[in-house]
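Lecture 7 notes: from sequence to structure.

We start with a single chain of 332 residues. Read the sequence below before looking at the structure.
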Amino acid sequence: MAATALAPLSLGASEPALAGCAPPPGNYGAPGVTAICDSLPPNGNPFPGGINYNTDNGAGGFPIDLTLLSGVQVVIPAGPGSVNAVNLANTGGVTAGAANLSITADGVTINNTANSGTSNNTGLRIQSSGAAIINATNTTIDVAGIDSTWAILAFAQPNGTGTPHDVSVNWSGPHLTSTTGVEGGGIQADNRANGNAIVVASGDINVVAGGAGVGPTQYGLLAHAGDPTFTGVSGAGNASVTYNSGTLNVSAVRPRGILAWVDGIGSATATTAAGTVINVSGTQRGGRRSLCLFEHGHRAERVNCGREIAYHECRTGGSHRFREPPGRYSSQ
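Now the structure, written as tokens:
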């Protein structure tokens, strides 16, 4: 089935300019979507239904480029929950083709905390058959939920093109806050195909375990390359996390402050700038890791923390606070 034969569900080029998002959020076909959202009435702030674009056709979908202009506020009200406040998707699993998705935001505020008893509440999210790119500057995000709640979450899904595609998140702002249950946290870049996973963050980040019956594990900053989910095969690619400024707090059941993780062939690297502070505290013995690297593939499997004392503390559990000197910590 040729992708070009698909009739678009809606044509972005034919939509009139409007206050809010142009074209409006929804499902689209070929050739994809280039959308811009502003804060103005009648369809602007507070975007109670979220901002969601989808071009999934089962074969890899079509490109989406979304720009959120300064002043945009996305506030999700109380309701059924399990809401992605801002979301782009063009795949639901493994596809033959690939198309890139990107979000660019500046001066944006997102609040998705009103439904904290539900799972999968996110701030900025991408699920892409190709590259998944999020660049958010001067942006504040607050989310709350149970399982799989993330302030920023980006996936590069498996495809049949054989071409590497990166998943990259670059965030700066006053703060990110995530109250989450199992497998949730601040920022995650997860590459389930071939390509790199990159997280760059500047600003204060707070991750707290919350919700009834909350369990492990919660993360501050996570970059994962070669994730074998869906295919059982670990792709090639590097994982890197860079924390440039601010304080990272993770208070959880089994917390991970910074985790760079490679399942296939590649290297894992974490970089922290001078003056950054990482605080982690956990309730399960052996569950704390402040600055950690995990690599499995062509090198020996191992976990390294930024310092020997950090490694010791993450094994013994309890509360820990340290200030990193400038430097590059790598498992290579």
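The first strand starts at residue 21 and ends at 22. Keep this in mind for problem set 3.
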